[in-house]
Amino acid sequence: MGTVIAVRHEQDGDYHVVIAPSPGFGSYLDSTNRSVQHGGIVAEIMPGQALRAPGVGAHVVVVGTWALDLMHGWNEIHPIWAMDTGSGLVKALPPVTPVYNPNEPRQPLSSAVSSPPATSAGSNCTRGYSPCLPLGPSDYDCYGGSGDGPAYTAPGVVYQVTGSDPYRLDGNGNGLGCE
Question: Cα 48 to chain center, whole Å?
Answer without folding.
Answer: 9
